[in-house]
Each structure stands twice: as structure tokens, then as C-alpha cells.
Amino acid sequence: MRESILTIPISEIFEPMEGCPICRMRDxxxxxxxxxxxxxxxxxxxxxxxxxxxxxxxxxxDQMLKQKNRLSLALMIQTHLMELDKNIxxxxxxxxxxxAKQKKVSQINEECFxxxxxxxxxxxLMVTFYELYGKEKEFRELFSKQxxxxxxxxxxxxxxxxxIDKKYQSEFVKACNALTKQYLETLIEDVSHFCNMYDYRNTxxxxxxxxxxxxxxxxxxxxxxx
Length: 226
Hints:
The protein is mostly helical and 226 residues long. The protein contains twelve helices and no strands.
């Protein structure tokens, strides 16, 4: 798992230039992790110990449900439930205060095996990203040609500016601002047009919706990364 993540060329993630490249990075790590956990890794003792302890969030349960191997998911759920029963609700836990038990449940509700692997992989890929931006002119140009940076990842990128060589920090912030603001203005225009099309004066068989029909979905993705 470690080698497969760290050997991914960052430039390949940025080459498609469709949507937010950091979303693509996250989605790639997510897909690889889901494929990994639903495959042979499911039977590896160290992996099962982690999935038993961490469990999965709703988003990643849904993604695993879409995979063909439902038995793998059932086996992971089975042992995860047994782990919960043993460590939180067994007889020994009666000695714990309600607050201590509640803290354990709250911790489990906030954890996810897939999320933890994505966070781990992202932290390492972002190190490489900042290094490339400071060292390679071609990569800086590639970054500036992206379609957009979503709002969540705009915050992530600008917050990490100190990881870039100082002489390129101003250029980097300007590029991030331009990519996010330009797309934001496009969304405003498209959503506004979508709303205007419900005016009775704009109806009819020749109504021109332009690029507005999917503006709601694109806006949600820009605002939430999903």
C-alpha cells in the first residue's frame, strides 16, 4: 500500500485538467483503498485489526456496498461488531463510568479505516506537490492551467504555503485565487441562468439553458469536494 501511493507521479494527477486536481488526488487514493480493503488484504490479520478497531464512515460503507464482493464486507462488519461488543458492552465495561463508555462510542463514530488511509496518503502526496511546485517550472505552469480548485482544497493549499520556496509563494497564492475565483464566477453565472429559466418568459421548446442544467451538482461539488 505504501509503495503504490508514494510512486504515483503527481504530474499524472494534474494532467487531465478537469475539475479540482486535489479532489482527483483524493478520489484516486479513495478508490485504491476501497479496492485494497475489499480484496485479499481483507484477510490480513494486521488489516483486520485496524478495520475492527476503526470501522468505516457512511460514505465508505456506501462505496464498498457498490463492490461485487459483499462477503468481504460482511466479514469485516461481523468482526467489527464483535469488537464493539467485547470492548464496550461486555460485562467488564459495567465497571466503567457512563462517560468513559460514551467516549469510546464517540471515538468509534468519528473514525474510519478508509478515511485514515486517505489522510495518510494525502499528507505524503502533498509534500511531493509542494516540492514540485517550488522546483519545476513546467509543473507550476501545469497547475495554473487547471480548471478549478474547489473551496475546501483552496483552503488546504493556501494553508500549506510555507511548504513552498518563498520566492514562489506569492505566485502560488495568485494561481490558487485565480483558479477558485474564476470557477466561482462561472458557477454564479450558471446557477443564476438556471434560476432565470424558470421564469415563464424563458420557457418553450427553444429555451436555451446554456451550461446551467448541471450547475447545482457542480456547485455542490465545488463547495463540498463531493
